[in-house]
Amino acid sequence: MLRLVELDKTYPTGDKALKSVDLEVPQGQVLALIGPSGAGKSTLIRCINRLVEPTSGSVFLGDVDLTKLGSGALRRERRRMGMIFQEYALVERLTVMENVLSGRLGYVGFWRSFTRRFPQSDVDEAFRLLDRVGLLEMADKRADELSGGQRQRVGICRALIQNPALLLVDEPTASLDPKTSRQIMRLICELCAERDLAAIINIHDVALAQMFVQRVVGLRFGAIEFDGPPDALTPDVLTRIYGEEDWEATIEKVEDEDEMVTA
User: Fold this and answer.
1) Nearest by Cα to 20 from 242, 228, 222
2) Choosing a second label site near 4 at 20 to 30 A (CA), which of 40, 155, 166, 169?
3) Domain ABC transporter: where (predicted)?
């Protein structure tokens, strides 16, 4: 379980990105983080794995307070947190297989990582993951030969080969077309269910979040404005999070999409 306790982040400019955020995410739950640009969504995700250092507060992964760890212990704990990026963060000149196996770099010794010689068990798991996401035949292709959706699937495999306890997903569909966006969100949620894996997904598309996740948290000005099930995102709630807009149209879109998926 992930637990955030009074998490604050103030940048040197004085901008307060997070304000006393308290949040618990149980094992197996997929949570969507929504809110306007600048609300603190990406900062929150990066404070969890300390890519951004919190100003104050605590981040517990299980019984471990990540904010109290030194650099060596933090590197070990980061192996338990898989990260999926908006811009994929693949090494373009490496093959799909090599990019997936890079998720094991925190587990192998220096020379094996330097020469990219991984145990056979890691290679077997990489093949299994690629097969699961429909990219087995792409294993030997270079990353720069792939489409956006294929690159994101490679990023998912790279995160999962860490065997994490938590997935941190930063705008996974921002660069994708609507059909591919639904496929990627569905894949992430299916994989989390198969592995009983918790996930926090920072996402701008409210309708897409409502279609797939179990729980939605809305941030506004660095504070939690809403925390509840997707069907509780009424026009009044969305106005509190984002401001005035015709939110009835968004809700109707979600209902229409749900009917199409069910059909």
Assistant:
1) 222
2) 155
3) 2-246
